[in-house]
Amino acid sequence: MDLALWIGAGLLAAVALTGGVTKTFVPREKLAAAPGGGWTAEIEPGLIKALGVLELLAALGLVLPAALGVAPVLVPVTAVCWVLLMIGAMITHGRLGEFRFVALNVVYLALAAFIAWGRFGPESFTA
């Protein structure tokens, strides 16, 4: 179970890192033209970059606290925050009719919920 949680956290961290780098460093025009990026056309660039920075922090928060042994409770807290982010992403993509991205967000949400459950519960770092 511990290994599955580490793998899940690593996969989700890779997703968060990719999304964070993209939203932080790619111009809004390019994001809006990309599949699933239509929502960025109507959003202020600062908000897009802020979401990108939050995703970068999530990538760090899913792995580093446990790997370094410094405040490992941040791993499940970050996973819960990712669940909330994915709910917002599902609403946004759903409003635009981008249902395959909603499905992808559901997968990410489920993985984050698994990590939160596992790290708050049976495989807690404080146990």
TrEMBL record:
Q: Supply the alphabetized keyword list.
A: Membrane, Transmembrane, Transmembrane helix
Say if the entry is tagged with keyword Protein biosynthesis: no
Offer one Pfam family short name for this entry.
DoxX_2
InterPro entries attached to this UniProt entry: DoxX (IPR032808)
Location within or outside the cell: Membrane
Its primary localisation, in coarse terms, equals membrane
Q: Where are the transmembrane segments?
A: 56-89, 101-120
Membrane topology label: Multi-pass membrane protein
Official protein name in the record? DoxX family protein
Q: Which organism is it from?
A: Streptomyces neyagawaensis
Instruction: Tell me the classification of the organism that encodes this protein.
Output: Bacteria, Bacillati, Actinomycetota, Actinomycetes, Kitasatosporales
